[in-house]
Amino acid sequence: MRRAELVRLLERVPGFPRPRADLEQVVTPSEAAATLLEIADRIDGIEGRSVLDLGSGTGRLAIGMAALGARPVRGLEVDVEAAQLATEAARALGARVDFLVGDVRSAEGPAELVVMNPPFGAQRRHADRPFWERAFALAGRTVYAFALRDSRTFIGRQAVARRADVLEVVSVPWSLGRTFPHHDRARVALDVDLWALRTAQGG
């Protein structure tokens, strides 16, 4: 699938109708999501890989993985409404994804690839940590995830502690529109990295 076609598909996945600040419900930009998918396909080959999307939101990453041939694909999302929207979007786009409702701490595996756009910790300090803990524990091969650039030291230390290898760290353009009531600017650019980490299980 060409990148332009992939981006168009991802843009058809809806955003959050009532985004919750406490969950940092921010839709992954379609261009950033496409970059994650392309890097995962280059490194691991997505087709036929089992995938788990932690904090799947309305399903953009999971649906993209399924569209590129991953099987089976699961998404775990704590917000019932978001999981429902994701299920509807997957059905509309012909993507086979099983979206489950639950807290990230309840995530079960294994899956060869874990993908995620976790909370960045802007609203609640360390909100991203349970996501990274479960990702390292459950990924049988590779973790692909977004994080603020400020988190590089933390993620690097986690990788060392978990005996994971950093395959790539790529800066991705990330423009956040006014999403929550406390946002006072129409749009702000965030410094966001895309990480690819080979877990100890996949080494």
Description of the molecule:
The protein contains six helices and nine strands, in the order ααβαβαββαβαββββ. It is globular, with a radius of gyration of 15 Å. The protein is of the alpha/beta class and 203 residues long. The longest helix has 15 residues, at 30-44. The protein has one domain: Vaccinia Virus protein VP39 (Rossmann fold, 3-Layer(aba) Sandwich). The two termini are 29 Å apart. Helix 2 (30-44) crosses helix 3 (60-67).
Q: Uncertain runs with pLDDT below 50, 5 residues or more? A: none
- DSSP helix count? 6
Shape summary? globular
Classify the beta-strand content into a percent band: 15-25%
For the biggest β-sheet, the strand order reads: 3-2-1-4-5-9-6
CATH level 4 superfamily: Vaccinia Virus protein VP39
Order of helices and strands: HHEHEHEEHEHEEEE
CATH topology: Rossmann fold
Examine the secondary-structure arrangement and name the CATH architecture.
Answer: 3-Layer(aba) Sandwich
Query: How many β-strand runs?
Result: 9
Overall pLDDT, averaged?
Answer: 92
Biggest pleated sheet: 7 strands, mixed
Instruction: Provide the domain count.
Output: 1
Q: Measured on Cα atoms, how large is the radius of gyration?
A: 15 Å
Instruction: Specify the CATH class.
Output: Alpha Beta
**Terminal CA distance:** 29 Å
